[in-house]
Design a protein that fits this description.
The complex is a heterodimer of chains A (about 70) and B (about 375). By secondary structure, chain A is mostly helical. Chain A is built from three helices and no strands. In chain B, about 70% of the residues lie in helices and about 0% in strands. In chain B, strand 1 and strand 2 form a beta hairpin. The chains are: A mainly alpha (about 70), B mainly alpha (about 375). At the A-B interface, helix 1, helix 2 and helix 3 of A face helix 11 of B.
Chain lengths: ~70, ~375
């Protein structure tokens, strides 16, 4: 799985990052690079079956807290 | 850069399919059981003033998207903070739609296939659509809408033999307060989600189009959703709440003679088309938002990575389908308030103030000129 992820992102970088770099679109390149690093990290973590905390649970806790506060 | 343009018809089709995406899958107002249709009607009624507000924002700043409007009204710093909030909502909604649909495919059709495979396949099409631009998505919507409507009509006609019209009784059996509560939840899901289209309707050709599009789209989608809810109630009765995908379950009962049965697979085509349009629009708007925050020349450069993050995000959102349904039914309507109600109101009030002061200035200059 990990091999597929690395291979996939290597191909993606050839398709996406190199043209931007060559065309000297610096801002686009750096924003894309940051997004690419985030997505690559997430892909690696998912492929290694490492649990990434979900924001849904945090949102649920905050909303329940607010609802309780208003109910009081 | 060439500005994209869509016609009123295309925009209406886009809005209808956007509103049907996900909501036809998980159903609206299911917590109200056999009063779900009343909750749906209340949802439409609650939403109409907000539809007018969304349309008004778009018609005041004709030709500008919500990101340009926000920066124009609130400046670069505070405007960008608001754009981040709006883009987050669009991104999150896209992930929710993606998860809903992929979970449906995983549960009903491909239980052995890992969820990530289904999600990646689906997001690939979304990325292609979002990269192609809103004109392409709008044309696909114009093509898909008749397919979706014809399939629904066909399924509903075929379900008549399995309907028990007494299932609708007792009307308001759990009291009006329960229906009003669920009505609010059907306001936020799916109707008020159309706030996302403020990032799309800058492409409308005429200033007055936004009101027409919003009104026609909401009423048409409302009629389809309420009819579907009624069919679900007639077929499933009070058990509507027990199904994760009520319309899929109700159409699975279709049996005309011995040769027309197991028709639920056909209706899945509608789920695919509507979910595809909705998640593509969410991805498109999220990318436009990110591009506006970083002042990029074009959003297309970031679509692939944003789409991939959206796919992974949809996977980590919930551990299982029960958690997803619980979050959708009990948390989502409150979570969406800042994005669907507060944010547009905030924009609308400032837009009106600015619009009036501009008009006053212009009339003052005119008088001086005389």
């Amino acid at each position: 799985m990990l091999v597929f992820v690395i291979l996939g992102y290597a191909l993606l970088s050839i398709y996406e990052f190199f043209p931007l770099y060559k065309e000297n679109k610096q801002k686009e390149f750096y924003v894309n690079l940051v997004l690419g690093i985030i997505s690559f990290t997430m892909a690696i973590l998912i492929s290694l079956r490492i649990n990434i905390p979900s924001p849904a649970e945090a949102i649920k806790i905050v909303i329940n807290y607010i609802l309780k506060a208003f109910a009081m | 850069m060439i500005r994209e343009r869509i016609t009123d018809k295309e925009a209406t089709c886009l809005l209808i399919l956007f509103l049907l995406g996900s909501s036809i899958l998980v159903g609206i107002g299911v917590r109200a059981k056999n009063d779900a249709w009343l909750a749906g009607i209340l949802g439409v009624v609650f939403f109409i003033p907000f539809a007018l507000i969304y349309a008004r924002i778009q018609s005041i700043f004709h030709g500008r998207d919500i990101f340009e409007i926000t920066i124009l009204l609130y400046g670069k710093v505070f405007g960008r903070i608001l754009i981040i909030i709006f883009s987050w909502y669009s991104f999150h909604l896209g992930a929710l739609v993606l998860r809903n649909f992929c979970e449906f495919v995983h549960v009903e059709s491909f239980p052995e296939t890992p969820l990530i495979v289904i999600t990646l396949c689906f997001i690939t099409i979304n990325i292609a659509a979002a990269r192609s631009g809103i004109e392409v998505i709008a044309r696909i919507a114009t093509f898909c809408l008749p397919v979706v409507i014809i399939l629904f009509l066909l399924m509903e006609i075929l379900s008549i033999s399995t309907m028990d019209f007494n299932n609708i009784k007792p009307i308001l059996g759990n009291g009006f307060s329960k229906v009003a509560d669920v009505g609010f939840s059907s306001f936020s899901f799916p109707f008020a989600e159309s706030v996302i289209l403020l990032g799309v309707f800058y492409t409308l050709k005429k200033r007055e189009s936004a009101v027409k599009v919003y009104m026609k789209g909401v009423l048409a989608a409302g009629i389809v959703l309420i009819t579907l809810t009624l069919v679900n109630i007639f077929v499933l009765g009070n058990m509507i709440e027990d199904y994760y995908f009520p319309s899929y379950a109700s159409f699975s009962f279709i049996k005309v003679g011995d040769f027309i049965q197991r028709m639920e697979g056909t209706i899945a085509i509608s789920y695919v088309l509507t979910s595809f349009i909705k998640s593509s629009i969410c991805l498109f708007v999220a990318c436009k938002g990110i591009a506006a925050v970083f002042n990029l020349n074009h959003y297309k450069f970031i679509v692939i990575q944003t789409g991939l993050i959206m796919a992974y995000f949809s996977l980590i959102l919930y551990d299982n389908i029960e958690e997803m349904v619980d979050w959708f039914q009990n948390i989502y309507q409150f979570y969406a308030i800042p994005f669907q109600i507060i944010f547009p109101l905030f924009i609308w009030v400032c837009a009106e103030i600015r619009n009036r002061s501009e008009k006053r200035d212009q009339s003052g200059k005119g008088k001086k000129g005389v």
